[in-house]
Write a structure and sequence with these properties.
8 helices; Nucleotidyltransferase, domain 5; 325 residues; 3 domains; 4-stranded antiparallel β-sheet; Hypothetical Protein Ta0175, Chain: A, domain 2; alpha+beta; 5-stranded mixed β-sheet; single chain
């Protein structure tokens, strides 16, 4: 549904082909002018409703009780075929609309559409709310007669304009047949823009989350702009740089040597290990005491490799210097 209509263009079969009206508060407020050429219509018009003369077009209605919505193939179907009147191939028709168990459809001749309506849609495109019939556009009071004039004889024209003050019916695509509607186009365009923004934001968030340094720099930038406040941002960035450098630097040789030594320890020796320390190039292993014979033999073999052993009643310590491993 679209409501803020500001301009109404009535398209007719006979000259003048176009009548322009201003709309205020959803009512026809004034007649502006009539035109025979589309090029004479102001280009600055916006929020337009196009109304087709009942001489130019036909809005058919037939009873139809539908238990479910029309299928895609049914929406492309013409429900008022009558070969005696006109061949379907010579017509341009709207999708059917359902309202109060009535199926409605709007159509007009292909030549009239290409000469009168299509150039109008091309000129104003997404500024047009809809292209509908006269009887579906206005709230008609039973106490007031509307004369939608479209005649080929100037002497038959009633100079009194009955459209002034007429209230517009709100357009619902599902209930009122329209040859053109921006409702669907605007929806998909808006949806596509929102989806694109959502994807870009998620990519940006993922990238900044996986890059802490960039995140800190952005926070620092926001802080300078007064958007957010971070205490000691220079110190945080400096620490992050150090961490990044340390993570990317090679593993120290002494760490590799310790890993190699521990990997060579038999499982029955590790199972008796109670404490492990590393300090100032020394690897200190503490075992429970007394030791089982197999562990003792292994440690004696290590001792033969110039390892220092500290032995007392409660524990046994072996001290290795990494340069000797």
């Amino acid at each position: 549904m679209t409501s803020n209509i500001k301009n109404l263009i009535r398209v007719k079969k006979y000259k003048p082909y176009y009548e322009l009206y201003h709309v205020e508060n959803n009512k026809v407020s004034s007649f502006v002018n009539s035109f025979n050429e589309i090029s004479k219509l102001p280009r600055t018009l916006s929020e337009i409703r196009v109304v087709l003369s009942s001489i130019l077009s036909v809005e058919g209605s037939r009873a139809m009780n539908l238990s479910k919505k029309l299928s895609t193939s049914q929406k492309k179907q013409f429900f008022f075929s009558h070969n005696i009147i006109s061949d379907q191939s010579d017509l341009i028709y709207s999708e059917p609309a359902i309202s109060n168990d009535q199926l409605k459809q709007l159509w007009l001749g292909k030549n009239d559409y290409e000469e009168r309506v299509s150039p109008l849609i091309e000129r104003y495109n997404n500024k047009i709310e809809c292209v509908i019939s006269e009887k579906s556009s206005f709230e008609i009071n039973n106490n007031k007669n509307f004369y939608f004039q479209d005649v080929d004889d100037d002497n038959k024209i009633n100079k009194k304009d009955e459209l002034l003050g007429a209230s517009l019916i709100h357009f619902y695509k599902e209930k009122i047949p329209s040859l053109f509607s921006i409702e669907k186009e605007y929806f998909w365009r808006g949806f596509s823009i929102i989806l694109l923004i959502f994807v870009i934001l998620n990519i940006f968030i993922f990238y900044t989350t996986s890059n802490p340094l960039l995140k800190l720099k952005l926070n620092y930038l926001f802080n300078n702009l007064g958007i957010s406040k971070i205490e000691n941002p220079e110190k945080i960035i400096s620490l992050e740089n150090k961490l990044t450098n340390q993570i990317s630097s090679p593993v120290p040789q002494n760490i590799n040597e310790i890993n190699s030594f521990l990997e060579d320890l038999p499982e029955n020796v590790i199972s008796h290990l109670t404490k492990f320390n590393y300090s100032e190039g020394q690897l200190i292993l503490t075992f429970e005491n007394p030791l089982v014979e197999e562990v003792l033999r292994y440690l004696q073999a290590i001792n033969n490799q110039s390892a220092q052993i500290v032995n007392n009643e409660e524990y046994l310590q072996l001290i290795y210097f990494l340069k000797e491993l």
